[in-house]
Design brief:
single chain; 122 residues; alpha+beta; Structural Genomics Hypothetical 15.5 Kd Protein In mrcA-pckA Intergenic Region, Chain A; 5-stranded antiparallel sheet; 9 strands; 29% helix; elongated
């Protein structure tokens, strides 16, 4: 494991498994989905221990504080020691499952589609 004092934000977020690939981490930075200490981060933005990194992606936002900087991808048990997770709790399952149907239930009727759209806020 290579530990350094500073690391690029795209390499660090990939190394601690916040993104599946480094290119996905770089793309998220370019799209404005990554912030370091409240500022929009470019892929080459450097992070040091103590920095707060906000990663927006998927259904929820991750807020992590850098504990250790690494540039090589590490295993999951080591990755969780590299940051302090301050993310808000995920939403309850009732809110996530709103508007989903059981597999094999067939095509929804027009009434079902309207109810699903209403639940999703469309």
């Amino acid at each position: 494991m290579s530990e350094v004092t500073r690391a690029r934000v795209d390499a660090w977020t990939w190394a601690v498994r916040l993104f599946p690939t480094r290119s996905a981490a770089g793309a998220a930075c370019k799209a404005g989905h990554v912030r370091v200490n409240g500022e929009r981060a470019k892929p080459a933005t450097m992070v040091v221990p103590g920095d707060e990194v906000h990663v927006r992606g998927g259904e929820r936002e991750r807020i992590v504080v850098v504990q250790r900087t690494v540039v090589k991808r590490v295993g999951a048990p080591v990755a969780v020691t590299c940051y302090l997770d301050r993310s808000p709790a995920p939403p309850p399952k009732e809110h996530i499952a709103a508007g989903t149907r059981d597999r094999g239930a067939g095509r929804p009727t027009k009434r079902d589609r309207r109810l699903i759209e209403r639940l999703r806020g469309h």
